[in-house]
Each structure stands twice: as structure tokens, then as C-alpha cells.
Design goal:
It is a single chain. The protein is an alpha/beta fold. It has 17 helices and eight strands. The strands form two sheets. A six-stranded parallel sheet has the order 1-8-5-4-2-3, sandwiched between helices. A hairpin with a 4-residue loop joins strand 6 and strand 7.
């Protein structure tokens, strides 16, 4: 019997990796890897994170558990197709039984790509979501990956997604498949205490954007049913389980992000932000992010000269800054799709009560207040963009089909252009 092409989806999927959370959790990785029966493990990190000592601490823990281990610290901050190729080449020098990623989203996304490309033939673009890549689904087993976030931000320890900056395309794009989800997330709030304020702020805005976008994405049962139920997209839309985690994340960010930025040694604030990141990761890893993230990929990919304080001396827009740059304009535009949910999000973030009379400006106002308090750049002009760049940015956004599939109202070129112009 042929499927009804007019039928709505009636099923949502939800998954998350096992989690080990708490101060001292990082020192239990050796025992976890040994329990897997692994005899060797590659620790993947970047040079800056290695300076904190945590990656080598993990390696020593692995060695003490009888697991052969090395540290690869060549991860690129905001990883590119080139930096990932170098990591894959290093990893292929031996057959590792498992991987441990220690770092922010850059290390975890690189480790996912390394895991994919050391177990499958092909290139990154073979697996990237169309129309940028071929969208091939991984078909072979991958190795166990343990993800250890050192920022309260990306949530990559919970998700099926890795994001890559394709230098030749001047565009970021992603690979997403359930096989890329880490086998275990180990979240130790202590490792985030040394983060500078600027990185804390940008990472925290990424947490916020994950939760807000998932919470306001199109409902799972307002999407068309898939022709093949075994090929449902990774982003299923807002659903009752993700909603719970997103609400909790929004409340925690509203209460603790300012404190974590202003006093990095506030372990309670760091712990609560680590929880918020984990909650938001389990939410958006299933419901999905939408337009702020779709906008962020060309914003980061087309940058020319912007250098972010607290980050390596290179042209880059940190992901948390890129997703927040258009957020106020996006959520003013998406407000008609579900006014009550936008007002509820504003309440969770601010602790204040809003009603319909506050309208579409309530959530953008709360976002702007928070971004001002934590010193986030105000607008795309901060990154060097101008009116002449809008068409390029719009072109990049319209290619992000994974995010656009869960935007809560139809997006066309005119709407995207309006949002970017409002965000300059």
C-alpha cells in the first residue's frame, strides 16, 4: 500500500548517550575504556586544551588502566576539511580500538569525523547533508567514542552531528547520523573553570541557541510523514521529551550564564552551565536547531578579517557568536508561529512574566539584555560584514537543508534577506 503523501508524521524519535557527570568524572575514563575491552585509545584534542593538562591526564589514566594511548593535539579550532584530513591521516597510522575527544565542539566534531573516515571509505563530502554533499549514510560499524567537553557550549557530546568548515566553499556544513553519537559523554564541570570570559560567553550563547531553536522548531507532528520510517531525519522537530530538556536548559542559562562569565571560578555556576549544555544537547540532538544555526554557518564560513578576543589569532567568528548574531531578528520573525512558546521562553530566561501584549519583541529584548551583559558582539557589522555581503550570507543559509527542515514558518529568500539586514 502506498503511503499517504498528505499524512502528517505521528512518531518522533529521541536518543542520548550514556552520561557520567560530576567533579572528578574525568578521572574514571581509564576504567570506562578498559571495561569496553579496548587495548588502545587515541585522545583527540587541540593545542590550547592540551595546555590545561586535562588531555594528558586522561592519557595517564588510560595507561594506568592498561590501555595503550597517545594524544593527538592538532585539532583545528573551528575545524576545517583540511584540519580533519590531517587528523584522519594521523589516526590511520594504527588501528585504534576507541577514541576519546577532550575539548570543545572542535575536538568532538573532529573525533566524530575521524571515527567515520577511519572506518569507512570515501571523503567528508560523501557524507555531508545535500545539497552541499552527497548525504551518504554510514553503513559500517564505527569505534566507541567517549566525549569529554571542556566548554559548556556545543552539546556535541550528546549529538549525532559534526560540523566542518569547507575552506574552498567558504561555507560550514554538517554530517549527521546516529552512528556518530558518542558511546559515552563524560562531563566534569571542573575542567571549565579555566575558560576565559569571552569563550564562556560564546559557549553559553550556543547552549542558549540550542535550547531556544529546539523549543521553537516546527512540531514533529506538523511535518510530513516520511516515505520510509527507517529513514526519518535526524532532526524530528519539537517533541514532548526534548521540550522538557530545553525548558530546563533555558532556565539554567538565565540564572547562571552571567555568573559564569563574570567569575569563572564560581563552581556552582560552572556546574549549572555544564548541566544546561547537557540538557540542551539532549534536546537539540533530537528536535534540531533551525535558523540561527543555518545563518551561523555562512557567517562563520565567509569571514575575512575578524579576530575574536580570547581565541587563537586567526580570522574566525566563534560559533556561539555566529549563532547569536541573528537570533533576535530570527525570533522576532518566528514569533507568529507560536506566540505562547516564544513568551514562555522569554519567561524562562528572564524570570519575568510576559503576556501577549508584549508581543514579538519580548524574547528579542531578553536576548539583547543578556548579550549586552556578557559582552557579546552586537550585530554582523562587528564581524566586518556590510549590506554588500547579505546576498552571500543568504545563499549560504538557503543551502542548510538540515536546519531549514525544522524552521517553524516557511523561509524564502526575501525573509532571509530581511533577517540578515535587521542583524547588521
Amino acid at each position: 500500500m502506498l503511503p499517504d503523501i498528505h499524512a502528517n508524521e505521528s512518531v518522533f524519535t529521541w536518543a542520548a548517550p550514556p552520561l557520567k557527570f560530576g567533579v572528578g568524572a574525568i578521572d574514571e575514563i581509564g576504567a570506562e575504556v578498559a571495561a569496553l575491552g579496548a587495548g588502545s585509545c587515541l585522545v583527540i584534542t587541540d593545542a590550547g586544551v592540551r595546555e590545561t593538562g586535562f588531555p594528558d591526564r586522561v592519557r595517564e589514566n588510560l595507561l594506568a588502566a592498561g590501555v595503550k594511548s597517545e594524544v593527538y593535539d592538532g585539532v583545528g579550532v573551528e575545524p576545517t576539511d583540511h584540519s580533519i584530513a590531517e587528523a584522519v591521516s594521523f589516526a590511520k597510522q594504527r588501528d585504534w580500538d576507541c577514541y576519546v575527544a577532550v575539548g570543545g565542539g572542535s575536538a568532538m566534531d573532529t573525533a566524530k569525523a575521524v571515527n567515520l573516515l577511519t572506518t569507512h571509505p570515501g571523503e567528508l563530502l560523501d557524507f555531508v547533508t545535500p545539497p552541499i554533499g552527497a548525504g551518504t549514510a554510514p553503513w559500517l560499524p564505527v569505534k566507541p567514542l567517549i566525549a569529554v567537553p571542556t566548554t559548556a557550549g556545543t552539546g556535541s557530546e550528546s549529538t549525532t552531528i559534526c560540523v566542518i568548515d569547507f575552506l574552498g566553499l567558504h561555507l560550514k556544513a554538517g554530517v549527521s547520523h546516529p552512528r556518530l553519537r558518542p558511546a559515552l559523554a563524560v562531563v566534569d564541570p571542573r575542567v571549565t573553570v579555566s575558560l576565559p570570559p569571552q569563550i564562556t560567553a560564546a559557549s553559553g550563547m550556543d547552549v542558549l541557541s540550542h535550547a531556544l531553536e529546539s523549543y521553537t522548531s516546527v512540531r514533529f507532528d506538523a511535518k510530513p510523514a516520511p516515505e520510509d520510517p527507517m529513514r526519518r531525519p535526524a532532526f524530528c522537530g519539537a517533541n514532548p521529551i526534548s521540550d522538557v530538556w530545553c525548558e530546563m536548559a533555558l532556565s539554567l542559562v538565565g540564572k547562571h550564564l552571567r555568573r559564569a562569565v563574570l567569575n569563572g571560578r564560581d563552581l556552582e555556576a560552572r556546574t549549572q552551565m555544564a548541566l544546561a549544555s547537557t540538557y540542551a544537547g539532549t534536546g537539540f540532538g533530537n528536535a534540531g536547531t533551525h535558523l540561527p544555526h543555518a545563518n551561523a554557518y555562512p557567517v562563520a564560513g565567509a569571514v575575512k578579517n575578524y579576530r575574536a578576543e580570547g581565541y587563537p589569532e586567526m580570522p574566525m567568528v566563534p560559533h556561539g557568536q555566529a549563532v547569536s548574531a541573528t537570533a533576535a531578528a530570527v525570533f522576532r520573525w518566528t514569533y507568529p508561529a507560536d506566540p505562547a512558546r516564544h513568551l514562555r521562553a522569554a519567561e524562562l530566561l528572564s524570570g519575568r512574566t510576559f503576556t501577549g501584549t508584549d508581543g514579538a519583541d519580548a524574547l528579542p529584548q531578553v536576548l539583547t539584555e543578556l548579550m549586552t551583559d556578557i559582552g557579546m558582539p552586537a550585530g554582523l557589522r562587528s564581524f566586518g560584514y556590510s549590506e554588500s555581503d547579505v546576498d552571500t550570507l543568504v545563499d549560504g543559509t538557503l543551502k542548510q537543508t538540515r536546519q531549514l527542515a525544522v524552521v517553524p514558518r516557511p523561509l524564502d529568500r526575501a525573509a532571509a534577506t530581511h533577517i540578515f539586514r535587521q542583524s547588521l
